[in-house]
Amino acid sequence: MSLIAGTTIKLRVAREVSPYGYFLTDGESEVLMHYTELVGSKPKVNNEVEVFIFFDTEDRLAATMKRPLVKLGEMARLKVADVHPRLGCFLEIGLGRQLLLPLSELPENIDYRPLPGDEVHIVLGHDKSGRLIARLAGEDELGPLVFAAPDSWRNQWIEGWVTKSLQMGSFVLIDGGVVGFGAYGLIPAPDRLRPLRLGERVSARITFIREDGRVNLSMGQQKEVGRLEDADRLLAFLKERPGGGMPYSDETEAGIIKQKFGISKSAFKRAIGKLMRERLITQKGSWTYLVEATGDSEATGNAAKSNNGEASASEGSSED
């Protein structure tokens, strides 16, 4: 019987060697279980113990009585403990040591890569040397575990984990089900309020349920609700601006609108249109102004003209 990293196996205690620990055997090979890897009472020689096989920091096979969060070939959602710009992400595996998710498994766009605290779905495997390594779980692994979203979910807000982030959108595994897997969904790029990281926790609204039970998602409100919220936000922004004006209008590029207000150009235009219909704002060129601010300016100007006129008339009377 061979000892394979990532597996749980029952081995016999061959001998104890102080100050290291116990040498365990399957009858053919031996592996060291250090004293720090004990759980519960100390075993005796010839006792049988169940252990998890892994590689230690010096790349030697070792054994532990601690229980890992994932075993070879299994899928699990693991928390990102650390990020290395050249190696990848290090994940908590429940053994007091961390598991590498290589850089090759991460998105090319740095904005889409995980940060410490994010949680990624992975499958535990081996690298070319037989050492334990993580690879991202894909649709082949996730697909059989999800269920079709019911029609009643439409327009409902859900939470889930980003399993893949691309330029065209982000895939999300929605919470639900007895084993924690719900439906599978996509947030198209126009419906993202910002770049979403792999492993990020996200809240989104179900906008469409496909025939296969998968869903389309949006991080924004429904148009009517969103228009009200966006309009209120723009109005508050203008009221805080000196002179009640801002250098943004229907002519402003979509990228600038997205960066400044976190909404799409179409959502911005809907909100602006609502405020203009209510005669709360007006646009001049590439600027948008509060009507009351414009009115104040016009009133000041008219008053000045009136005063000038009265002064002229007064001067004419004295000459007569």
Q: Could you report the average pLDDT, rounded to the nearest whole number?
A: 86
Low-confidence stretches: 296-320
**Main CATH class of the largest domain:** Mainly Beta
Strand order in the sheet with the most strands: 3-2-1-4-5
The ordered H/E elements are: EEEEEEEEEEHEEEEEHEHHEEH
Structural class: alpha+beta
Q: CATH topology of the largest domain, which one?
A: OB fold (Dihydrolipoamide Acetyltransferase, E2P)
Secondary structure: number of strands: 18
- Could you say what the CATH architecture of the largest domain is? Beta Barrel
| CATH homology superfamily of the largest domain | Nucleic acid-binding proteins
Rg estimate, integer Å: 32 Å
Strand content of the residues, in percent?
A: 25-35%
Using the alpha-carbon principal axes, give the shape.
elongated
**Largest sheet at a glance?**
5 strands, antiparallel
Write the layout of secondary structure elements.
Blueprint lengths: L7 E10 L3 E5 L4 E5 L13 E8 L5 E4 L10 E10 L3 E5 L5 E5 L16 E8 L5 E5 L2 H4 L14 E10 L2 E6 L9 E5 L12 E9 L5 E4 L4 H18 L4 E2 L7 H8 L3 H13 L3 E4 L2 E4 H29 L1
Parallel strand pairs: 13-15
Antiparallel strand pairs: 1-2, 1-4, 2-3, 4-5, 6-7, 6-9, 7-8, 9-10, 11-12, 11-14, 12-13, 14-15, 16-18, 17-18
Helix pairs in contact: 2-4
